[in-house]
Amino acid sequence: MRNLLMATVFGLAMVTAAQAEPVRMSVGSYNLNNLPFPVAESLGFYKEEGLDVTIENFAQGGSKVLQALVAGSTDVAVGFYDHTIQMQSQGKHVIGFVQLARNSGLVLAGKNDTDFDPAKPETIKGKSVGITAPGSSSDFFIRYYLKQHGLTDNDISIIGVGSGAAAVAALQQGKIDLLVNYDPAATIVVERGLGKILIDARSDEGAKAVYGGIYPTSVLYANQDFIDKHPEVIQKVTNATLKALHWMKAHSAEEIVARLPDDFVSGDKKTYIKAVDNAKAIFSEDGKFVPADLETPLAVLKSFNDSVAKATIDLNTTYTNKFVEASKQTVQN
Questions:
Q1: Distance between CA atoms of 264 and 7, rounded to whole angstroms?
Q2: Which of 280, 150, 140, 152 has its CA nearest to residue 210?
Q3: What is the set of domains in the chain, with CATH numbers?
């Protein structure tokens, strides 16, 4: 009887695994803007939805994920909303379907003895500035800052340094003078006494000061063709991700970090927990896109991206809320 029971359980597991729908998901880096994604994976929410997820982490930044999506080597990207605008200007239809981070999460940090003073923008001239990767939102951040203050990218050197520990090391080792990055790097720089935050766009107030408004960042996006052909997969990914957002809201930073895989945690755990606590305010509570907020990244891109400036961008076709609204996990306000 015991052998029969075990065989039955094993058979059911095999059937379940066989029925799981495969989906390839790629993430640009393990910065904290993307945190709901590894939370959903580590808590088994994608499996619960009947998905067999293959994950690829491009530590170089979100622009590499975008390239993979356009090339067809991944199905769903965990990346930044502004990439959907870029793609529309190039005639490609990339659609955001869940918002993870409703605000920038970016900071500009420098060593404690830096002579760069944000109140005197010209003091940035001659500096080497580390970003996650060319074409990333950290790249957009510094280019927009320069544009707003009558400067150009010829006034500085922009260097891709990745995120997390690699970004912190680049500042610590003097490979760069300033760093534009996310948590956990932002918190690690301060907690270790390596430097200070000079411009902070993690709060709503900081984002409005830098960009003129709320700047949505991390989202789940996919090609329109994939969404049209596999709406059931997109719905399941949405359901799982919303479970993660709700779970994060109900749990402390310490509880969140305890459930993460070891390779996601940068630096010592105590500092990382503090970084998660600092970042919690940027996450969406319901996964929905707010149309008015999407005007901010469009304005930023138009300021220095010629292809976006020349194109007629219809923001309504860069995102959809229908999968979030259809999900049983949607927060009822």
A1: 36
A2: 140
A3: 2-103+216-326 (3.40.190.10), 107-211 (3.40.190.10)
Q: Are 312 and 230 in contact (CB under 8 A)?
A: no
SS (H, E, C) the chain: CHHHHHHHHHHHHHHHHHHCEEEEEEECCCCHHHCHHHHHHHCCHHHHCCEEEEEEECCCCHHHHHHHHHHCCCCEEEEECHHHHHHHHCCCCEEEEEECECCCCCEEEEECCCCCECCEHHHHCCCEEEECCCCCHHHHHHHHHHHHCCCCHHHCEEEECCCHHHHHHHHHCCCCCEEEECCCHHHHHHHCCCEEEEEECCCHHHHHHHHCCCCCCEEEEEEHHHHHHCHHHHHHHHHHHHHHHHHHHHCCHHHHHHCCCHHHCCCCHHHHHHHHHHHHHHECCCCCCCHHHHHHHHHHHHHHCHHHHHCCCCHHHCECCHHHHHCCCCCCC
Please tell me whether the overall predicted TM-score, pTM, comes out greater than 0.90 for this model. no
pLDDT tens digits for range 59-92: 655 677 888 898 889 999 999 999 999 999 999 9
